[in-house]
Design goal:
By secondary structure, the chain is an alpha+beta fold. The protein has helices at about 1-10, 15-40, 95-110, 135-140, 150-160, 190-205; strands at about 55-60, 65-70, 75, 85-90, 120-125, 145-150, 170-175, 180-185. An eight-stranded mixed beta sheet has the order 1-8-7-4-5-6-2-3. Helix 2 (about 15-40) runs antiparallel to helix 6 and helix 3 (about 95-110) crosses helix 6. The radius of gyration is 21 Å and the shape is globular. The N and C termini lie far apart (about 60 Å).
Length: about 210
Amino acid sequence: MSSVRAAAAESPAPAARSRWKLLLVLAICAAPVLASYLAFYVLRPEGAPSQGVLIRPTRSLPADLALARLDGSPVAAAALKGQWLLVVVAPATCGPGCERRLYLQRQLREMLGRERERVDKLWLLPGGGTPAPALRTAVEAAPAVTVLRADAGALARWLEPEPGRKLEENLYVVDPMGEWMMRLPVDPDPARVRRDLERLLRASAGWDQPGR
């Protein structure tokens, strides 16, 4: 009888074995992502300094971020995952600064060449209103910008501008897992931003594929 109890004590409980198996699976799945960020953060090649500011730790896409299309139909926050995102935050009135950022957003994506299919353009509108017809036509031209209304409070809890700036003054980079991981400065140098984006895409080539 004592030998049976000893054997039972030496054998891990089924629940413990299941937890270890789950942790092992999670570690295997996360390894390529962690390696890609290590390559960007630590092992990136020498050259011109990074134009974007890396967010450490990254900030996860809020599950409660209320989103809707311009026609009012709801969109789940999880629908944004699966693709790199270049994010503009601006009201529907969209003044000259907003228009410059939308142009820069398009320019940056096109500068990536054949890798551009791994990047989506997103315009988040806190509050109501609808973009002017001419601007809406421009952003809907292929490759179209995804335009969504967003809850301003949840948006402000996710993204953060440079100190002393408003949320709409910066561009934001979100990875395919929905992690906000880079903020671009006001009036950035497009060539230097392109190098940042190219490094990100190269570092993530093992786990990120074109399309959602």
